[in-house]
Write a structure and sequence with these properties.
Belongs to the MurJ/MviN family. It is found in: Cell inner membrane; Cell membrane. This is Probable lipid II flippase MurJ. By secondary structure, this protein is mostly helical. It has 19 helices and no strands. The protein folds into two domains: 434 residues, no CATH class; 81 residues, no CATH class. Helix 1 packs antiparallel against helix 11, helix 10 runs parallel beside helix 15 and helix 12 runs antiparallel to helix 14. The radius of gyration is 23 Å and the shape is globular.
Length: 517
């Protein structure tokens, strides 16, 4: 399991790093103004439906059923189920895409009401949204294929395919921009083209793995009806999550111009550990838990869940504390160039700090949710989701004016903390979650080590690197590298002293892996 987690994390890390390059180009070309706001809303639209129909509810229902069909029946029945699921999914998404293209102006009135006061930003958002919307069909089809590959334990290629999104995004900004009205158009076309690439890569990989997906007329077979029954509560749950995100977007569009942009770039940094660890944990954990529970091995399932939680917190806690401490320097180093000015840097750093408050909770949601899905329980997360939706909405209204661009991130963080608390409590009540004393002590030691690490970074910055965000970019890169290295050494050293990790053994394993490759 740990090997699979590292494999997915490695590819996701590469994708996130390339994503940072893409975001640096977006910041340099578009800054944090009305055109950037319009592009970000246009990109969120297909992402919203992707998470609703693709990676969220659909995969949560599809992967356990596909795995069960594979284990209890045979590969041919699993192939048939995969093909039926694919075609019904594409048919539904095609209808949504056509409706979205036709009624895009009305849709933007709902999710970006603040844009209607700025005609240029509103019309740009309509055009860009119509360019990016077909990405929804492609990426949802790719998500199904990735679910097939993950169920067959082909984790590497499924994770690697998503790297192409950022590769095509970078290429579009660099090479398409001169032929487009502006860089936002080039970025939007890069999104849709990358969807074609991702789908193609995963389709070929699934075919090589023995599962060929073909287009045919969709039909409601008994298996598909069962999939819909399992999927419906998940869609409601995912819908609640998307409503949360939509609320954040609505609030952001009502704030001063550029708020959508500064929050986006802050979230991109926050998504680096969240995507690398959270997505990897969720991807690898669900099929493993499903397999153990199908064989009746509840103790093994609980052990796998606890180990994943421990691995994730070991890396998430220093990331959260470190991002909070270094937020201005990180934003300045990565995005503080071109059209992205110093005011945008400070505002984005403030948003990042409020996002990091909930970072561990966001990742733990990814760890605990499979505990419900693997047991066929998709209704409980829905009930929790309704609670967090109301909480997020109330907090957004409270924080909207006094905190401005920091309000939606803080509301989301607090709602995530409440979400993970509810998930853990209900799993515990169902005897599906239990932390032994040894893991609780490890978590406490990790928190202490992360706090001391953060304090050491802060003191080092205050003593040796004052006003560094105004330095030339090369000096910022050097200073940031020194501070990150200092924090890493302090955190690793404290955990070694507390006997949480064995640095000698870890270094030896890393060296052996490098030599092997």
């Amino acid at each position: 399991m740990f090997k699979n987690l590292l494999t997915v994390s490695g590819w996701t890390m590469l994708s996130r790093l390339l994503g940072l390059v893409r975001d640096q180009l977006l910041a340099a070309f578009l800054g944090a103004g009305s055109l950037q706001d319009a592009y970000q809303v246009a990109f969120r639209l297909p992402n919203m439906f992707r998470r609703l129909f693709g990676e969220g509810a659909f995969n949560a229902a599809f992967v356990p059923l596909f795995t069960l069909t594979l284990d209890k029946k045979n590969i041919n029945e699993a192939k048939k189920f995969a093909n039926e699921s694919f075609n019904i999914l594409i048919f539904i998404l095609l209808i949504f895409t056509l409706l979205g293209e036709i009624f895009m102006p009305q849709l933007l009135h709902i999710i970006a009401p603040g844009f209607t006061t700025d005609k240029n930003r509103y019309h740009e958002a309509i055009i860009l949204s119509r360019i990016t919307f077909p990405y929804m069909i492609l990426i949802c089809g790719a998500a199904l294929l990735a679910g097939v590959l993950n169920s067959l334990h082909h984790f590497s290629i499924a994770a690697a395919a998503y790297v192409s999104f950022n590769i095509f995004g970078i290429a579009a900004l660099l090479w398409l921009t001169p032929f487009m009205p502006n860089a936002a158009w080039a970025a939007a076309w890069g999104v849709t083209i990358s969807g074609v690439a991702q789908f193609g890569i995963l389709w070929l990989a699934a075919r090589k793995a023995g599962v060929t997906i073909l287009f045919h007329r969709p039909k409601l077979s008994p298996s598909i009806k069962k999939l819909f029954r399992k999927m419906t509560p998940g869609i409601i749950g995912s819908g609640i999550t998307q409503i949360n995100l939509t609320i954040d977007t609505i609030i952001a569009t009502l704030l001063p111009t550029g708020s959508v942009s500064v929050m986006y770039f802050a979230d991109r940094i926050n998504q680096l550990p969240l995507g690398v660890l959270g997505a990897a944990a969720g991807t690898t954990l669900l099929p493993l838990l499903t397999k153990e529970l199908n064989t009746g091995n509840k103790e093994a399932a609980l052990s796998i869940q606890n180990k994943t939680l421990d691995y994730c917190l070991l890396l998430t806690l220093p990331a959260a504390f470190g991002l909070f401490t270094l937020a201005p320097l990180i934003i300045s180093t990565l995005f503080g160039h071109g059209a992205f000015n110093l005011d945008a840097v400070y505002k984005s750093a403030q948003s990042l700090r409020t996002y990091t408050v909930g970072l561990p909770a966001f990742i733990l949601i990814k760890v605990l949710s499979p505990g419900f899905f693997a047991r066929g329980d998709t209704s409980t997360p829905v009930k929790i989701g309704i609670f967090t939706l109301l909480l997020n909405f109330i907090l957004n209204l409270i924080f909207m004016y006094p905190l401005a661009h920091m309000g939606p991130p803080l509301a989301s963080s607090i709602a995530a903390i409440a979400n993970v608390g509810a998930l853990a409590f209900i799993l515990w009540k169902k005897d599906a979650f239990y932390l032994p004393v040894s893991i609780i002590k490890r978590i406490i030691y990790m928190i202490v080590a992360a706090f001391i690490m953060s304090l050491s970074i802060f003191l080092t910055e205050m003593i040796f690197f004052q006003n560094i965000i105004k330095n030339p970019i090369l000096f910022r890169i050097i200073d940031l590298s020194i501070l990150v290295l200092t924090g890493g050494l302090v955190y690793g050293g404290i955990l070694h002293i507390l006997d949480i990790i064995d640095l000698n053994s870890t270094c030896l394993k890393v060296r052996q892996r490098i030599l092997k490759r």
